[in-house]
Amino acid sequence: MKKIILIPLVLIALNVQVALAQCNSEEISNGCVPTLTQNGFNFLKSYKIDGETDLTKVEYSYVFTKGTQYMVTICDQNAANSTIMVTIFDSQRNVVATNKIKGSLLSGIVYPCNATGIYYLQYTFEGSSNRCGGSALGFKK
Amino acid sequence: MKTVLIVLSLALLVACTPKNTIDDFELQSSLDSIKNKQAIVNEEVVNSILEQIPSPLEISVLLKESGVDYNSRVINSPSNISRYHSTYQKALNLGIYGADLGYTNIYGQNAEGIRYLTSIKTLANDLNIGQFFDLRTISKLALSSNSLDSLLLITTQNFNAINAHLQQQNRSNLSVLLLTGGWIEAMEIMCDAAAQNLGNRELVERIGEQKIILEQLTLLLSFYRDDAEMASLYEDLAQLKTIFDGIQITYTYVESSIEIVNGVAVIKDNSTTTISITDKDVLDIKNKINSVRNKIVS
User: Fold this and answer.
1) B52 and A92 in contact by Cβ < 8 A?
2) Nearest chain B Cα to A108, which residue?
3) Interface ipTM
4) Is residue B39 over pLDDT 70?
5) pTM value surpassing 0.95
C-alpha cells in the first residue's frame, strides 16, 4: 500500500529534479546583455548555449559589417569556472577570433570588423560535463 | 489501489503536457491567411538563414555617425496603417515600422517614435503577437531623454522575441516578411542618403555590401514561391539582385591578431573586403528599392 503511493511521489520528485537540472540558457543569455551596454555596445542578439543533449558544439551565424565593432559576451552557468569557448569563423571557415588565449577562456570578445560577410559563432565546451550557458552580441560604430 | 495509481500517473502526465490548447492553434491557423507550406519548407534551414540577417538599427547608427541628418519624409508614415489589411501587408509593414522606430530612436525623435509604437502595437495585435510589446513601458522610456539605451534594448528584445515565437510556431513565413520589410526600409533610408552624397564612399560601399543580405533574403523568399504574394515579392527582389550582380565584393583573409584588454579578447582584424560599385549602381538600386517599397507601403 505504502509502496504504491510512494511510486507517483517518487516520479514527481524525479520530475522536479530534472527540471532543476535543466539548462536555463535563455535566462543566462539575458544576463549576458548588461556587459554589452556597459561597454557602449547596442544589443543585437542573445544566444542560448545548451549542450546538455550531448551536443559538442552550438553554432549561430550573423552578417558582420565592415567598420562596425562587435562584442560577444559569454556567460557560463558555472560562472566561477567557465568552460565555454567561442570561436568566430569567416564565411570560408577561417578562424578570425577566439576567447581562448594562452589557455585561458575570457568572458568576451571585441571584434572590430574589417570585412563584411557571414560569420559563424561556434560555442564549444572545454572538458566539462556542465554544458550550459548563454551569450550576447552587440555592436557599435 | 490500482485505480489510485492510474489516476495519479495520469495527473502527472497531464501536468507535464505543454499548454498549447486547440483554441490557440485554431486562432493561429485562422490568422495565417498566407498558406504556410510546411510540407516543402524546412523550418530549420529557414531559421538558420533568418538569424543571419542584420538589424536595421545598424544602418541607422551608421547614418547618424556619418553625419547624415534625420529625414522624416523618407520613412513610412504611421498613419498609413489603415491601408494594410492582409496578413502579408501587416507583416511586411510591421518590419518597416520596426526599422522606422529604430531610426527615430537613434536620432532622438522620441515623440515621433511613439506614433510608430502605436502602429506597431496595432499590427502586432492583428498578427496575434501583440503580447511582446508593452506599450506603456516602451512609451515611458521613449519620453525619457536619457533612456535611449534601455529603449533600444527593449525594442530589439521585443522584435527578437517575436521572431523566436513565430519560428517556434512554424510561422517563419511571417518572420521572413518582417525581416524583409525591415531591410527594405533600411535600404530606402540609406539609398536616399547616399544618393544625395555620392562622395560618401563608406555609405556607398555599405549599399554594395547589401548584396550579401539580398542573396539570403531572395533565398528565403524562394522557399515560399507557392504563395502568390510572396512569389511577387521574390520576383521584385530577384530583379533588384540583377542590379547587384554587377557589384564585385573581393575578400582577402589575413590572420587576425589578439590582445587582452580588461579581461576581454580584443581582435585586430587584418582581413579586408573591397567593393566595386559605381554611382550608377547606387542610383539604380535606389530606384528599384523605391519602387518595391512603394508597392508595400501604398
Assistant:
1) no
2) B264
3) 0.84
4) no
5) no
